[in-house]
TrEMBL record:
Protein name from the UniProt record: Small secreted protein
Keywords: Signal
Organism for this UniProt entry: Sporothrix bragantina
Signal sequence extent: 1-19
Length: 103
């Protein structure tokens, strides 16, 4: 009986776990980001890999997909000053950030 309950609980959680995929979208404006249109670049970030933000990017959106440590960096290739991001993805002005990584 206990094993049946565990299987039912695991099956109920599976769709939400599969739906939580990491995402990094780059946009040419905050308006495009807020309205999810005209994506310049899209990535499904892999844990520990650095993603440089393009010079055309003015805003970006991230979703952690379960990774709990999103970071942005003031230098390319995840160098320089590092700032933490919320684990709740949202549109954010690129500002002086040049790269992104999460794990």
């Amino acid at each position: 009986m206990k094993s049946t309950l565990i299987l039912v609980a695991a099956a109920a959680l599976l769709p939400s776990a599969l739906a939580a995929k990491p995402k990094l979208n780059q946009y040419g404006s905050m308006d495009d980001c807020n309205n999810d249109r005209n994506i310049l670049y899209h990535a499904a970030p892999v844990s520990g890999r650095c993603y440089n933000l393009d010079d055309k990017t003015k805003a970006f959106f991230w979703a952690t997909g379960g990774m709990l440590n999103p970071r942005v960096y003031h230098g390319k290739d995840c160098n320089g000053i590092e700032d933490p991001l919320s684990t709740n993805g949202r549109c954010i002005d690129k500002g002086s950030w040049q790269s992104f990584k999460m794990w």
